[in-house]
Amino acid sequence: MSHREHCVHRGAHDDLPDLTAEGVTVRLGDRTVLDGVGVRAAGGRVTGLLGPNGSGKTTLLHVLAGLRRPDAGAVRVGSTDLRGLGDRRRARTVALVEQHAATTVDLTVREVVALGRLPHRGRLGGARHDPRGDAVVEEVLGMVGLSDLAERTWGTLSGGERQRAHLARTLAQEPEVLLLDEPTNHLDLGQQLRFLSLVRELGLTAVAALHDLELAAAFCDDVVVLDGGRVRGHGPVGAALTTPLLGEVYGVEASLAPHPRLSRPHLVWDGPVEAP
Amino acid sequence: MSTRDARGRAGRGLLALGALLVLLASCAVALGVGSVDVPVSRVLAVLARRAGLGDHGVDLLEDQLVWQLRLPRVLGAVAVGAVLASCGAVLQSLTRNDLADPFLLGVSSGAGVGAVSVIVLGVGLGGLAGEAVLPVAAFAGALAALAAVLLVASAGGGALRPHRTVLAGVAVAHLCGAYTSVVVIMHGQGDAARRVLAWTLGSLAGLRWGSALVLAAAAVVALVWFLAYAERLDAFAFGETSARSLGVPVAATRWVLMVATALVTATTVAYAGAIGFVGLVVPHLVRPLVGSRHRALLPASAVAGAVLLVWADTAARSLVDGQEVPIGALTALIGVPVLVWLMARRTAS
């Protein structure tokens, strides 16, 4: 049974590894983009990565994905240091849904999803090195609800379908940790809600950079709030997103309130917002 | 829905078989066409005799025309077409640029420097025939230009970023072009300018068995090499970050493939000049038929490029009696309308 099937049907998440970053520092020239960032994304939970534009969310995700080597600090999945992994092993450990990854190449949905099998194949490629490949591709297409669109070409898909295809591609990598960089940008509200519900249902360890605090409050278990390259808040949504923190980081007067009908918090603006 | 979805695996097999048959038929016809026409049946008789399958009453003239003169040229056309088209497909994917072609890294202009130095200045002629020195000088010039482009493109980093590489290629090409123009204008005598221009537009007229076999070897090596990278090239579809997150060592892959395409392209330029538009246009023609996955796109581009060049070369040597039409002009004549059509189609969709 694949690791993924495993998580979908499980309640507890004790055997899924945590993703931890310690003292991650990234400098670009003389600018410090990330300054000693420590993050723990608990196994099987969805962690929202929040912060204003330019707070370092994308850079941190790239460090967590092992795509960017930090100037200091380390990233671990379970007890495995990402730096010690080869490219393909790393791609089987963490997978990244990029922010609006576009292409002019006219691949079909199935071909895009099959790209996710690349790290499972031999160096010289070829399906015979990956006997489970076709079955996994079919399975993840079903998980994101794209089985019927598998033969459609990229140019004919809606934004929501494209994002689901990207998600399926990362699932085909069978990673231990899923990273998503503002995956709901360019989607309409219905697509945003359906996409994030889908991510939640997977039950994988996931870290999603999100722009929208309301979505973060609704779909994340935990949040990390970045500002100016530093962690300003970290913990379960209800505990971390405090009125003082939101005021300091976003310059707004807001707080979390219980949802009128559901057992989750939602965000309310308290005071008038001053025009700049 | 794209047209290729209706086709199964069997359909793709048939398409491959059909493409190979078209290529073989084109070669058979091309071997018969020329100053003296040889019917296809006699062409096959010559080939059968050479293969040791009976005499078939082949006379010396037929054998000379088909086997000694035309076959190296046709084989060379196949090899050059296959190399240029597959290099174009590789570079368009690596740089994510639809306009990338095999001369992206300055090899054609660098080869031009070498060729002009021989044709006009007579460098290295000392006793040797220019015919033999020209390919060597062109290849050396191409390598020097490639080195310069790589040096400029990777300065202060090491990663060959596509837009930097394209800019470096353009810069080096202009420098080489300046040298070529100055040499032709200051030192060109008699028909030097005409010879340089003819070389620039490419020609397969100089191909003999030796050079044709070198080109064929280059084509085989290139195709096998590129096919080994087919799946990693697919991973470039969504850009560099996406490719890296799929475990593709992007920087190393770019270096290896860019240098490999430049080397095999330089080999074709050394013997046949810079034949334009094949590498640019053929991958665009083939994608609607076989899709964008490189496992299919690379061989399909190679076969289509080969067919195109066989016909272009046949036209080059038979359109005008007693004179060669530059093959680069013919490929441009076919390539430009196709490019315009592609642009119109893309704008429409």
From TrEMBL, chain A:
Pfam families: ABC_tran. The keyword Translocase does not apply. Residues 19-253 form the ABC transporter domain. The keyword Repeat does not apply. Keywords: ATP-binding, Nucleotide-binding. Transmembrane segments: none annotated. Gene3D superfamilies: P-loop containing nucleotide triphosphate hydrolases. GO terms for molecular function: ATP binding. This is ABC transporter ATP-binding protein. It comes from Nocardioides oceani.
TrEMBL record, chain B:
It is found in: Cell membrane. CDD domains: TM_ABC_iron-siderophores_like. The keyword Plastid does not apply. It comes from the Bacteria. The keyword S-adenosyl-L-methionine does not apply. SUPFAM superfamilies: ABC transporter involved in vitamin B12 uptake, BtuC. Keywords: Cell membrane, Membrane, Transmembrane, Transmembrane helix, Transport. The chain crosses the membrane at residues 74-91, 103-126, 132-153, 165-187, 207-230, 242-263, 269-286, 298-319, 325-344. Gene3D superfamilies: ABC transporter involved in vitamin B12 uptake, BtuC. It is a multi-pass membrane protein. Belongs to the binding-protein-dependent transport system permease family. FecCD subfamily. This is Iron chelate uptake ABC transporter family permease subunit. The lineage of its organism: Bacteria, Bacillati, Actinomycetota, Actinomycetes, Propionibacteriales.
